Description:
Layout: E1 15-19, H1 39-48, E2 53-57, E3 62-67, H2 71-78, E4 85-88, E5 91-94, E6 118-119, E7 124-128, H3 135-148, E8 154-155, E9 160-161, E10 170-174, E11 177-183, H4 184-187, E12 204-209, H5 221-231, E13 237-240, E14 245-250, H6 254-267
Antiparallel strand pairs: 1-3, 2-3, 4-5, 6-12, 7-11, 7-12, 8-9, 10-11, 12-14, 13-14
GO molecular function: arginine binding; identical protein binding
Organism: Irena cyanogastra (Philippine fairy-bluebird)
Keywords: Cytoplasm, Phosphoprotein, Ubl conjugation
Amino acid sequence: xxxxxxxxxxxxxxxxxxxxxxxxxxxxxxxxxxxxxxxxxxxxxxxxxxxxxxxxxxxxxxxxxxxxxxxxxxxxxxxxxxxxxxxxxxxxxxxxxxxxxxxxxxxxxxxxxxxxxxxxxxxxxxxxxxxxxxxxxxxxxxxxxxxxxxxxxxxxxxxxxxxxxxxxxxxxxxxxxxxxxxxxxxxxxxxxxxxxxxxxxxxxxxxxxxxxxxxxxxxxxxxxxxxxxxxxxxxxxxxxxxxxxxxxxxxxxxxxxxxxxxxxxxxxx
Length: 269
């Protein structure tokens, strides 16, 4: 419904959403959540089969977006580990490999994926949700933050922000569930009784992936972060965007996360 505009850039692919639902078969003591919870079973296998993914964590759950043309490879890759369903008219219908075999080609081995640089701003973030019926009470503030708030200076020469701090605000509305990521200072502008977070009220730090816009053709970007964090049982809230990828990890674990990712980069050289 959006009118054509020279100001709006649109990727050339159509994407499908995968919602990964657990049936309780995780091994005892598995505490990791977010992208690391599905790193071994979904993220790594898709990367190995050269499937590019967009990852979107929300307050309630995690979603993986795959390009529609990659669906046959996705089904063949995940069918051994998962029961796969497609939604038709609001109902879940089982999918088999035979349903999507047309055009399936076994992927050819390729070189190891690029390990992109990671940066960690000092900004502290909150992961929140809002009850839908209270959304009108903060609508004006949301509009102000989304469209009118001051952003840090952008260095056009280098194409990067000063990463001592970073402007990042994410709002998602999926099937009526609202999820918000904002920095701790911005949170103070909202009525505290309307923003809901976990009982521990933890703060998060960010790891931003990519020294320049990543594009959508490369695979293994999410796996670069998810696999080492999964091995260390560290939760991560992951948001892919048009230009960069972002992983949020608990604040107290940021030093360990940076060390793990640096070790992976050094071993990949």
